[in-house]
Design goal:
4 helices, nuclease, 41% helix, globular, OB fold (Dihydrolipoamide Acetyltransferase, E2P), 102 residues, alpha+beta, 3-stranded antiparallel sheet, endonuclease
Length: 102
């Protein structure tokens, strides 16, 4: 049985010393970084398991797109859903809904 994303992430990073390799800052002032725990590249694992989205706008690395495509083809994680919604699309829709309420 497949592990839930939060459970897998806790197993990978919980209680461990993390190594962050910062490679930029997004328009909101947040750090963009590669995350390693015990030598494991966390983004790779989460993308391959279908538990993360690759946001190409901030990180165009082709291997990230390949890992996501692999998970999508094998219908792992969020790709098991017929029409998964990207988090940025979900947030935009929620903001739109709130702005329409009076």
């Amino acid at each position: 049985m497949e592990k839930r994303p939060n459970k897998l992430l806790r197993e990978l990073i919980g209680g461990r010393i993390l190594k962050l390799l910062v490679y930029g800052i997004d328009p909101f002032g947040r750090l963009l970084a590669d995350v390693y725990a015990n030598g494991f590249f966390i983004q790779e694992i989460m993308l391959k398991e279908g538990h993360a989205w690759h946001y190409e706008h901030f990180d165009p690395r082709p291997q990230f797109a390949e890992w996501q495509a692999e998970a999508r083809i094998t219908r792992k994680g969020l790709w098991a859903c017929p029409n998964p919604q990207a988090p940025w699309d979900y947030k935009r829709e929620e903001r739109r809904k709130k702005s329409c309420k009076h």
